[in-house]
Amino acid sequence: MPKTITQLKEDRAKLIDDARSTYDKIDSPTAEDEARLNTMLDDADKIGSQIATQERLEQQEADLRKADPRKTVAKPVEDRSGDGDTEYRDAFDKYLRRGRGKMSGDERRALEVGTDSEGGYTVDDTLAAELIQIRDDMNVMRGLATVRNSSQDVKIPTEASLGVATWTAEEAAYTESDDAFGQVSFSNYKLGWIGKITEELLNDSVFPIGSHIVSQIGRAIGKGEETAFVAGDGSGKPTGVVNGSSLGVTAAGAAAITSDEVIDLYHSLGRPYRGQATWMAADATVKLLRKLKDGDNQYLWQPGLQAGQPDSILGRPLVTSDNVPAATTGLRSVVFGDMSAYYIIDRTPVAVQRLDELYAANGFIGFRGFERTDGKLTQSAAVKHLIQA
Fold it and tell me: Does one domain contain both 66 and 86?
């Protein structure tokens, strides 16, 4: 019988405590000592992955229990005016298997409800919920950012400066002081994936063609989104939170981070943002952070010991994304801030297009999945970064 989340948390905590105890007893760690410690931490990470899987499973089961029994899946990002019924699902499945040319007139008319401007068709409701779940699981930013759906251009107002309240004597005139506002405009970037499936599998009625394609698209788009939402440069893609953040601390070392620098980064963030702030770093950088202590000889990094509780630094949660640059000369290796100030604007739901001719010579049918979205940090002061010397 699999271990419970609590048991796994206890196993992970023991591994981490053992690693700390071992590290504390070594004055000058050798390469062999470092390898042994890293193995212990890697084992702790594996248990952490098991914990995350179980927590995800429990959350999905809880969501199903809360759902209306007449409709157990969520609507996708955009209501397609009635196309989520059986007629559309059947037409969409036949389109994937046979192509539009072999569909009846009624089937084509049913499919037209979900027509995309580039010739694809939006994923039916049931598969859309599955795709969204897979995509979001692959992209840490979607769980932290503010996500909105819009089919039109979006401009988010931002506060450039706050008005000032002043003490006023009885019957004296009030001093005028208005807030100053700016705005952040969002573009319409396209993210796409192309894959192929053999004709034999498409002709196999038992093969779950829709779920297979959705899984492939969800993973590919989720990974592509996270890369851009974390570290994108804004050129033909979203501007990532790393590039949108403002300077908090410049490290003294080109490839090292000290505990004082982490504490300085924490306090470089304005107090109103700290209550919702999250740390983010690449896995290799997290390993550096795990070994840091404060002035009282206490570790800054603490493992989450309860179900659903993440690891933390200075009391704030830590997430790992290898899209954050490494702790290398001149790079922004750690970000800390209120990630809800990062906005993701989804312009269209994911659509799928069948490519009949592209791989036909080799007995394959191609499929293209694509979406339009953008992401930007709307307040640079809400997220600070540490940059290596």
Answer: no
Burial class (CB in 10 A: 0-12, 13-18, 19+), 189: middle
Domain boundary pick from 14, 46, 72: 72
pLDDT digit string (tens) for 275-318? 999 999 999 999 999 999 888 888 899 987 666 678 999 999 99
- Three-state SS sequence of 191-219: EEEEEEEEHHHHHCCCCCHHHHHHHHHHH
Question: Domains in the chain: how many in total?
Answer: 2
pLDDT > 60? residue 66: no
**Domain that includes residue 23, residue range:** 1-72
User: Which residue type occupies 10?
Assistant: E
Measured CA to CA, the distance from residue 270 to residue 272 in angstroms comes to 6
Q: Quick check: 81 pLDDT over 60?
A: no
The reply to whether 247 falls in a domain is: yes
CA 54 from centre of chain: 19
DSSP strand pairing (189-198 vs 364-377): antiparallel
Structure tokens at 354: 């069948």
> Mean pLDDT across the chain, nearest whole number?
85
**Mind listing the pLDDT tens digit for each residue in 314-347?**
999 999 999 999 999 999 999 999 999 999 999 9
Tell me whether residue 117 is in a domain.
yes
pTM > 0.85: no
CA dihedral 360, 364, 132, 71 (to 10 degrees): 100
In a domain, 95, yes or no: yes
Structure tokens at 238: 């979203």
Tokens of 157: 């107002």
Question: Are the C-beta atoms of 103 and 183 separated by less than 8 Å?
Answer: no
Asked if 356 and 97 touch (Cβ cutoff 8 Å), the reply is no
